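Ticket #4471: structure output looks truncated?

Reporter: J.K.
Steps to reproduce: submitted the chain below (174 residues) through the standard prediction queue, then opened the result file.
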Amino acid sequence: MDPLELLGQPVRLRIVHALRGGRTLTTSELCERLPGVSKATVYRHIDLLAAGGVLEVAEERRVRGAVERHYRLRGEHASIGMEAFEKMTADDHRRAFAVAMAALIAEFDAYLGHEGADPAADHVGFRQHAVWLSREELEELIGELRRAIAPRLSHEPAPGRARYLLSPILFPVE
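Returned output as attached by the reporter:
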């Protein structure tokens, strides 16, 4: 299955998000993180992601006679590569953006569904800013954002840390 088709589905994209940061999770743990998605649907999408090389089995354990698999991302297959991205049509980009937004809405809804969710205390934000930039200034901004974000991608879970979903979106509007 082609990467765009494989990752271009909201539930599969949410599974990929759940496993980012070096996490290994069982199907049951993934089901807990995807409220509103049936267990059968999660299993089906895990199978597709594993068959497509996006997920791999990190560990297998016998639990009450059944085999419990722990999955992890295969980082090199967990995103659409630049070559494939450059070949995408306008309709491919529309579809990919719609899937990304659907996954983001589902993640935000799951957050709000947790008891104790407090958007103000959790510094939730969804602002839009229109900025005028030359090509050079745009590339500088992208570099600054990457330098700010990249070192934090390898942070491990620890007391006092919460997992945040950061989804920068950038495109020209005129």
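Triage note (M.O.): checked the attachment and the full token line is present. The CA atoms of residues 21 and 156 lie 8 Å apart.
Status: closed, working as intended.
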